[in-house]
Amino acid sequence: MSTPSGNSDQTRRDIQQTRAELGETVAALAAKTNVKSRARSKATTAVGGLRGRVTEAGQSAKTRATQLARTVSQKVSQRVTSVEQKSQHTIGAIQGSAKAGAQTTGKAESSVVTSARAMTTKIGSSVRTQPLPVLAITGTAATLAVITYRHRRSR
């Protein structure tokens, strides 16, 4: 029995196609049974997702830190301005007291001491509300006032 050449070619193509399909099926089954490869694939996916979340959290933290720094800077600037104004007022009051004290004989020192005590009380209340900036600026102002008083007194 001889088969026509057309039928044998068709049969060969069918066999090749069946072999290809069988090969794909075997490869798919092998991939499903390859636990190591599947674990690597899942790990890679998980790592990628984790990296994305870490990057997002880092950017969020950086943005929040920048916002907080701006807010703190603005508040410090406002307090410094307030303390500067109060210290200028205090310096003026101390200078006025020093002048008044220098004009009166004998009572000059007690007048300055009284004035200094009053200013100390006033500064104390300011320090309770805004401790650090007030202490720094008021200390500088008081030092300047004492130096000015002593300098004028020694003339």
UniProtKB/TrEMBL annotation:
This is DUF3618 domain-containing protein. It comes from the Bacteria. Residues 80-90 have a biased composition (Polar residues). InterPro entries: DUF3618 (IPR022062). Residues 1-20, 80-108 are annotated as: Disordered. Pfam families: DUF3618 (PF12277).
